[in-house]
Amino acid sequence: MSSNNRVIFFDTTLRDGEQSPGCTMHHDEKLRMAHTIADLGVDVLEAGFPIASHGDFDSVQSIARSVRGPRIAALGRAKREDIEAAAKAVEPAEKSRIHIFLSTSDLHLAAKLRITREQAIDQIAEMVALAKSYCADIEFSPEDATRTDPDFLLKVCEVAIQAGATTLNLPDTVGYCLPEEYGAMFRRVREKVPGIENVVLSAHCHDDLGLAVANSIAAIEAGVRQVECAINGIGERAGNAALEEIAAILMVRKDKLHYENSIVMEKLFPASQELSRYISFGAAPNKAIVGANAFAHASGIHQHGVLANPLTYEILTPASVGYNGQHIVLGKHSGRRALEHRLGELGHKLSKEEIGVVYERFTALADRKKDIYDQDILALLKSEPAVA
Ligand SMILES: [Zn+2]
Question: How far is the CA of 55 from the centre of ligand 1 (A)?
Answer without folding.
Answer: 20
